Amino acid sequence: MPLEPLLIAELAVLGLGTGFLAGLLGIGGGMLMVPFITLILTGRGVEPDLAVKMAIATSMATIIFTSVSSVRAHHKRGAVRWDIVKGLAPGIVIGAAIASLGVFAVLKGSWLALFFAAFVSFSATQMLLDKKPKPTRTLPGTPGLLGAGGVIGFLSGLVGAGGGFVSVPFMTWCNVVIHNAVATSAALGFPIALANALGYIVAGQNVGGLPPASVGYIYLPALIVIASMSVLMAPLGVRAAHALPVKSLKRAFAGILYLLAAYMLYKGLMA
Fold first, then answer.
1. Do the beta carbons of residue 196 and residue 96 sit within 8 Å?
2. Mean pLDDT of the chain
3. Cα–Cα distance between 257 and 165 in angstroms, integer?
């Protein structure tokens, strides 16, 4: 697959968009990247089932860089709840390892696409309904955070997202303010992405049909171009996140997720 100017341009535009969303919504941009990288790879001859897996893995790898840029901007505003990060991170690493090293390698790309669509639709609905948590509800203790982190890391590994689609609703359900939840989700994106990316590299070592410049399931040209562009835009997304009212932020989150879920449902059914 030659790295022609059109491919570079497509990846650059995708990187700008995902970087902005990473800062705005704390979702790492993965929900946008997976459908579009799938489209780009299949359009250039990669077998559809493999394209979905590569899109998930490459998306996750870019979040390593996006999350760093995004969380720095959030931290300057004092919005990151580092106590929550500390509680969730160990479980996240365990869950991510199980997903990327085991389940991901076994499942077909079409099933991963359908799972992506179903879970993202559920997350979008929960956010759109904007159900108010009980005023007395708080974050669970250490064992509860460990378990929640495991679920977040595992689900993220299956769909190639930074975990914001699970962690943001979880934290708001526990009465964490939405802006703090978004900022904390951005910080959680780093351990999620690093643990899963390493797993995808190991799991994809002996897979046939991978295009040139791939490391395991990760397509390096997409990783480099998207990551370079996304780190430029993440701080602008952060600025927008702190300027928008809570309801507008949640509606934006839900609307984008519905559109991307519909596309991945289509890809899963066609495959």
1. yes
2. 82
3. 9
